[in-house]
Design goal:
By secondary structure, the chain is mainly α.
């Protein structure tokens, strides 16, 4: 069985190499035709029939001429594209050790307060709500997008403003519990970048290489400020700066930032006993969730960070009252 698989793999490699050689030969023929036509244009005394004969001879001899194989971009994507896609998958992975599993972002408090109000009431009225994850998810995502996404986008667009964005976000967060969760996850992300993602960079002479080297330097300087307790290191601006350094586009960064929050909420709901893991994946894969994430990205795409603010005020109450619960399994 293994010999058959190896034989099939060998055939696939041969076919791929033959296709690559044919493509390169076609490029060589085209280049020679352009060269001959250019020479004919510069020499008006040349007979057009001779030019045609030269093109005919060059096309016939192309198949007999050794073709040097040079690295060219293929349909599979350039190395830069593959690298950014690789880091996109890493940042969207639930196994990324941000510590988000320890936070429910107010879900546990939302469920507890809903149950307590229902148990304490003797009659059913319209003022009492039944806590459901389908009701909490859009509220939490809307709150998260309006308060944090503008800082993520601003840091991606201008990583040099990372320290200022961190200070503004730290001053704008009213809820102490939410502030603590944002700092804990932000510092975890910075630690991941330092220990895992900031491998030695090759300083290139291209503009792209210089921008990458500059972003590395900015993150190193920010880490130095954190060790001196001069910054707080909130998650939102750091996510934007790190994503820019790893080559993610602005839209990819915004979508993954919100998707990670939705995945953390679904994981918390599973551990809180709201539903099982299959239902959690069904919620995340639903068209409603995809449309909600895309709409939130579009809504806050051009919102400056100075105008970021809480769009769901009750979310601060649920998160803030989490520490008052008699028993809890999450930090927020």
């Amino acid at each position: 069985m293994s010999e058959l698989l190896n034989h099939q793999d060998g055939l696939e490699v041969e076919v791929e190499l033959e296709n690559e050689i044919a493509r390169l030969e076609a490029q060589l023929v085209e280049a020679k035709e352009r060269l001959s036509s250019k020479k004919g244009a510069t020499n008006p005394n040349t007979d057009p029939r001779q030019q045609h004969g030269q093109r005919h001879i060059s096309s016939e001899s192309a198949s007999h001429t050794p073709v040097p194989i040079t690295p060219t971009p293929s349909s599979r994507g350039t190395p830069l594209d593959l690298s950014s896609q690789h880091y996109l998958l890493l940042l969207s992975d639930s196994a990324l050790p941000l510590g988000s599993f320890a936070f429910s972002s107010g879900l546990e408090s939302y469920l507890a307060h809903g149950r307590s109000s229902n148990h304490s009431s003797t009659t059913t009225t319209s003022n009492h709500y039944k806590p459901t994850f389908s009701s909490f998810l859009p509220l939490s995502l809307s709150s998260y997008a309006s308060t944090s996404l503008p800082f993520t986008l601003a840091a991606h667009r201008d990583p040099s403003a990372l320290s200022d964005l961190d200070d503004v976000l730290d001053a704008s967060i009213i809820c102490t519990v939410g502030r603590r969760a944002s700092i804990a996850q932000g510092r975890a992300l910075l630690s991941i970048w330092e220990k895992s993602f900031s491998h030695p960079q090759t300083i290139a002479t291209t503009t792209q290489g210089q921008e990458k080297a500059t972003s590395v330097k900015l993150l190193v300087e920010f880490s130095s400020l954190l060790r001196k307790s001069q910054v707080s290191a909130h998650l939102a601006p750091l996510f934007g700066a790190v994503s820019a350094n790893l080559g993610l586009s602005l839209r990819q960064t915004a979508y993954v930032f919100l998707l990670s929050h939705a995945k953390a909420l679904a994981s918390a709901a599973v551990r809180a006993g709201v539903f099982g893991p299959y239902q959690a994946q069904k919620v995340l894969a639903s068209a409603a969730t995809q449309e909600l994430l895309a709409d939130l990205v579009e809504k806050h795409w051009d919102v400056p960070f100075e105008e970021a603010g809480q769009s769901v005020p009750v979310m601060d109450l649920w998160i803030g009252r989490h520490e008052m619960l008699y028993s809890r399994i999450f930090n927020s």
